Amino acid sequence: MARIGDLVLACLQAELNARTGLDLRAASPFPATCMVTMVNGAAKYMADAGSYAASPTRR
Question: So what's the pLDDT on residue 39?
Answer without folding.
Answer: 84
